[in-house]
């Protein structure tokens, strides 16, 4: 009986943040330039897989977090790598759309509370090349900021 009581107490003391394996949210700007909705899944305590799609593109990649969340600490610093594809209007050329493919390396800080809500701010380089890169040697380089609002679902 003491063992069962100890296990129940131990289970209730564990932070509910550790049980939040699946998350989703919205971000403004970021790897798809304008904004997107994203889904992420915890692969381990410090590594998450993220997929997103937005108004003009889509992306996918991994994020590595510096520390694990617990009930006393809700902030985490992270970095990652995303591959993205998006289309931008060619305002100064033919008037059509340019399809671009790129690499985004975000650096950010995330706040997440135990109920699952999160906010993050990030900044990182986005280097993209035109789908006709061989023909016209055009590329797009910018600092891509993002503001992210999300929710992480409990998986108990």
Distance between the termini: 23 Å
What's the total number of strands? 9
DSSP helical segment count: 2
Q: How many domains?
A: 1
Largest sheet: 9 strands, antiparallel
Mean pLDDT: 82
- What name is given to the CATH topology? Porin
Indicate the percent of residues in helices. Answer: 10-25%
Rg from alpha-carbon coordinates: 19 Å
**What is the CATH domain class?**
Mainly Beta
Order of helices and strands: HEEEEEEEEHE
Structural class given helices, strands, pairing? Answer: mainly beta
- Low-pLDDT runs of 5+ residues are 1-16
Shape: elongated
Which CATH architecture is right?
A: Beta Barrel
- Fraction in beta strands: over 45%
Question: How would you describe this protein?
Answer:
- The longest helix has 12 residues, at 2-13.
- This protein has one domain: Porin, CATH 2.40.160.20.
- A hairpin with a 7-residue loop joins strand 5 and strand 6.
- Strands 1, 2, 3, 4, 5, 6, 7, 8 and 9 form a nine-stranded antiparallel sheet that branches.
- The radius of gyration is 19 Å and the shape is elongated.
- The protein has helices spanning 2-13, 133-136, and strands spanning 22-29, 35-44, 47-54, 57-65, 75-89, 97-104, 107-112, 117-130, 139-153.
- It has 156 residues and is mostly beta strands.
């Amino acid at each position: 009986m003491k063992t069962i009581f100890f296990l129940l107490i131990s289970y209730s003391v564990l932070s509910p943040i550790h049980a939040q394996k699946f998350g989703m949210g919205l971000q403004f700007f970021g790897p798809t330039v304008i904004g997107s909705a994203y889904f992420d899944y915890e692969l381990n305590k410090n590594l998450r897989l993220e997929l997103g799609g937005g108004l003009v593109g889509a992306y996918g990649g991994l994020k590595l977090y510096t520390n694990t969340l617990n009930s006393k600490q809700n902030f985490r610093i992270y970095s990652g790598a995303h591959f993205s594809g998006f289309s931008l209007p060619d305002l100064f050329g033919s008037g059509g759309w340019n399809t671009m493919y790129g690499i985004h390396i975000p650096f950010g800080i995330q706040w997440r509370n135990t109920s699952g809500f999160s906010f993050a701010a990030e900044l990182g380089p986005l280097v993209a090349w035109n789908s006709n890169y061989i023909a016209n040697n055009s590329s797009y380089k910018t600092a891509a900021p993002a503001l992210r609002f999300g929710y992480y679902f409990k998986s108990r």
